[in-house]
Write the structure tokens for this entry.
Amino acid sequence: LSGCGNDVMTQTNAAKGLMPIILIADDAALTDALRDIERGAQAAVPGEGGPEDAVREVLRGVATRGDEAVAEFTERFDKVSLEPSEFELSADEIDEAAATIDGELRGALERAHANILAFHEKNLRQSWEETSADGATLGQRLTGIDSAGLYVPGGTAFYPSSVLMNIVPARVAGVKDIVMVSPPSYRGTIHPLVLCAAQIAGASRVFRIGGAQAVAALAYGTDTVPAVSKIAGPGNIFVTLAKRFVVGVCDIDKEAGPSEVVVVADASANPEWAAIELLTQAEHDEDARAVLIAVGQDVCDAVLAAAERQLADLPRADIVRKAFEANGAAYVVRSIDDAARVADTVAPEHMSVQTEDPRGFLDRVSNVGCAVLGGGTPVAVGDYYAGPNHILPTERRARFASPLTADDFRKVTSVIAYSPERLAKDAPDITKLARAEELEAHARAVEYRLGSQSKPLS
């Protein structure tokens, strides 16, 4: 996002070197900045070699050798030795782990679960049928897919919130079998808090496997791990690539990249509030993207100075600084209109709008995964608690993709039942279209119903 030339770059004394600053002083600079955003995203697409080759090796191994390969790759990448019989956690093991969680923390998870459940139940589409006056019936039947494999990241941090965001919409959709996988990165197993969330949300089965090998196991199936209809959930580059490669064997939700935020601030914004939202996403990891769009140089200076102050005692300050330097950018724009064009081109995962008229600004932008309106609303309420899903499109995919919903775990069956009257009415058009495509049997299939061939055998 920071590929503009040196002629449009400047640094403030308040936060020198914190992140690249891009000054948009005229229409030409705006055009250049928008083009650079688009080119930067294209350059980020992985090519051959590197992680792609490593993921292909894992997929081939699991597809051909099953559990043996899963165990081998788990030991190689996660440094945990497991027999296939140890992959799955029993209900007793999950209950024992969940029982160790503090009651107040469990209560917070349960209340978050209730909010997420209520939100996803509201936006669920329903089956429908409609019968016209001539007796023809058309409609759609929506049903949950049979099974879903839900990936929950692990590693240096643990994400019970991702458990809820994955499992709840699948449950609302009516998925019968919900299989959760997560790396054995906490003492050779899954963190108790993550297991507690799985218990609350209602996972059918839980496996302590992660990485590309877990995606492969869910896609192809092994003697121990069931093959599923769809794989969902965020992960690192290896998980993301594995999901990309198994499309067609099963479905996936979307390719999830690093965490992203765009903070839009004008002179009405509280610099401390704007700054903390930049830090919030950047503390995830060094690949996270934090972008400030400031209406005016004074606003930019104030926000970045606040960010520098807040970094002083932030536990993950080193990660934030590396993310800011590698992937961050501060755009200094002339107007709200310029800010909207930049934000719409970035197409971010999260957008924190801290302007005089947040809703008016949202009306100018269509490409965003989650819009958080007003300085008084932190992005974290959506990450954990409010109800909307925090599994969101990243890397400019908000131009065509949406947050994870219950409908992502459902499929549509079209329903058609024509009456003789409706078929007679529509037959001329249907037969003309069929013969235009030189598909004679299609035309005759209609005509047979209208002629002597329509009589049943006796």
Remarks:
- The CA atoms of residues 239 and 333 lie 37 Å apart.
- The longest strand covers residues 137-144.
- The chain is about 45% helix and 15% strand.
